[in-house]
Structures are given as C-alpha cells and as structure tokens.
Write a structure and sequence with these properties.
Blueprint (H helix, E strand, L loop, with lengths): L3 E8 L8 E6 L2 H10 L9 E6 L32 H4 L3 E12 L5 E17 L6 E6 L8 H20 L16 H11 L4 H8 L4 H19 L19
Parallel strand pairs: 1-3
Antiparallel strand pairs: 1-6, 2-5, 3-4, 4-5, 5-6
Helix pairs in contact: 3-4, 3-6, 4-6
C-alpha cells in the first residue's frame, strides 16, 4: 500500500475533486501550515488534504465558555478534535492544490485551492505545529454503465437547477456547458447539490463512479420533488464552495 503524508485541513464541509475551495486562514495552526506550503517551489504543487469533521469544531475555542466559564482556551494542532483526532474525521477526504496563497499584512492568509484526488486517512500526527495525515490515494473506478448513468444524472440535474432557480428565474449553469465525462459529472453534481455533510461524504467515498451516479440520480429525483413546493431556495455556484473561516 502506497501512502503519502500531507498537511491536514479539517473542515465542516466536503471537498470534491474539481471543486474550488476559498479559505480565510486566521488560526495559528493553519497559518503555520500555509507558511510551510509557501516553502514549496512555485513550479511544484502545494498540496494539503481536506477531511470533513465528524465530531469536533472547525475553529478552536479561543475564550472561556460554557459550561465552565473559567475553562482555558484549547491550544495546539488538534484543538477541538479530542484526544484522538483520527476518530474526529471522516476517513475519506480530498487532496487540495493551493494555486494561490496570499499573506495579508496582519499575518492571516487568503487561499484559493482546488480539489484533485480522493484519499483515505490512515493516521493523524499531532506532534508538529499543524496536523499531518498519512493518506492512501484512492483510484476512481468507472463501474458498470457509468456513461448512461451520467446522461440520466445530467438530465435530472438540469431539472434540479431549474427548481433551484425558482422565483429568481435564472439558470444555475453559470453560462457554461456541463461536462459529459462520467467521473467529472459525478463530482460536479455532488458538490452542487444542497445536501448535508453525511450525504456528501457518502457520495465522496462511493466505491466507483457508477455507484455515485446511481445515488445522485435517486437524490436528484427526491430533491427535485421537494423543491416543487419550495421554488425559492438559494442558488449555488457549481464549482466553488463557500469561503471557510477555518
């Protein structure tokens, strides 16, 4: 089994390959991570791994709070994730390539990254200034009938888009043609749908593209039926996630 070790960035969201991820970095542990990534030559990928949080807090507590108002703030790379960070995270995540890392005058960072490949989290190391993870790359197998399933998902997704547009009377396609490669379709739709984290995580870790597309087809039909009675839900950019405040 081939593994790689990369900086680990836990989020209250799921990153998919191809999804653009803006980050606003202000916690010291993630500032340290960005400073380390900036040491990588510009012609080489500046990679870190994003994992969705199963049990914990994306931002560590920095002031006394409930139930003990005198409790000290949590510090360190694993703050907010308990004594065993591995148990706090979902086990399948996504490698992110930071195309832009811009340091502000106050020492915080503005980062723009893109999801690239799926990985399975094998272990977490909290001994340094930020978390690192031992990661096993996951191949994306097409599965049976992925091409036909992708066509069905795209048809259902266009109906879903129309329902999401609702009272705004606007298209959610952002003026661009939707892709037809099954793997890309499966990730794009998973990222764009309004779903909770456990459902998005289930889609990310699907055993193959066809399985993901089958799941999405069921979800699209179900969600579109619900949206018929809720036509004014907010729209979503198809390739960009919300800016995370880490």
């Amino acid at each position: 089994m081939t593994t790689v070790r990369l900086p680990l960035f836990p989020l209250n969201s799921v990153l998919f390959p191809g999804l653009v991820l803006p980050l606003n970095i202000f916690e010291e542990r993630y500032r340290a991570m960005m400073r380390e990534l900036l040491k990588t030559p510009e012609d080489e990928p500046r990679r870190f791994a994003v994992v969705a949080i199963r049990d914990g807090h994306e931002v560590a507590r920095t002031a006394p709070g409930m139930p003990d108002p005198t409790a000290l703030p949590e510090l360190g790379p694993a703050a907010g994730f308990g004594s065993d960070p591995l148990k706090a995270f979902h086990k399948v995540g996504c490698v992110a390539d930071a195309a832009t890392i811009r340091e502000r005058a106050d020492g915080t960072f503005e980062v723009l990254a893109t999801g690239t490949t799926r990985v399975r989290l094998r272990s977490v190391d909290a001994s340094g200034p930020f978390l690192t993870g031992e990661l096993e790359p996951l191949e994306e197998e097409p599965g049976d009938e992925a091409g036909a399933l992708a066509e069905g998902v795209l048809r259902s997704f266009r109906q879903y888009q129309k329902r999401l547009a609702g009272a705004r009377e606007r298209s959610l396609s952002t003026g661009a043609e939707l892709p037809d490669e099954p793997g890309v379709v499966s990730y794009l739709v998973a990222a764009a749908m309004m779903l909770d984290i456990p459902t998005k995580q289930r889609l990310l870790q699907a055993p193959d593209t066809a399985s993901r597309l089958r799941d999405e087809l069921k979800l699209l039909r179900s969600e579109t039926a619900i949206l018929r009675t809720l036509p004014s839900l907010p729209s979503s950019d198809l390739t960009r996630g919300p800016t995370s405040l880490n």
